Target: TetR family transcriptional regulator
Amino acid sequence: MSHWDIDGCTVDGMKAAKPADSPEDRRRRKARRTRDALADAACDLILSQGTAATTVEAIAERADVTRRTFSRHFAGKEDAALDFVRRDGDRINALLRARPAHEPPLTAYRRAVRAWLTDPDDPPWQLRPRMRRLLALIDSEPALFGAYQRIRVDAQEESIRIIAARLGTDGALDVRPAAVVDAAAGVLVAALRVWARQGDRNPGAADLAALVERAYDALTSEAAAAVADSTTEE
Model:
């Protein structure tokens, strides 16, 4: 038997030690745990007592950190409560970058969204029970709605850059990347809004994913009908 057993990562029957975490890795994990604790605290408090009655100090106290620590992670309480929106936007964009180059932009975005919604190892935050309630609250809380819009626009701007790169064009001058992203992201937002308003009548990952797929089908069928109609008029 060879002294080197590559499949088992062993040397003379002894398992090779994994590389030790670097101090930077440990700091990054600690920062992520703190950020998650603050986001969870913000969600809990805003859902239980509303945005106006929730203070940054209360969020920091609930997460067992200082007010200064909160400010290192978030600009305000609304940003903390909606941190899941930013993270999911980052995930969709990462999946969009990984789509095959031959896919049309709208197809690539749609499939990136599908992969995000159906990832069994890291389900989207929307599927946590309280996230549906928070999404529904966004429409009635102006401060939350404003923060949601800012976060969504940031994610879409990155999506536009990704689509522009796929098309080999300048997204600041070519309208196509923005048109694709605004349409595709708008469909997702519309589906999420409908899903949130359904409450507990339509729980589960499969239901949300199916609703999003139907929404994209509606977009493509309406676009095809519009093209056919414009051709007939000519």
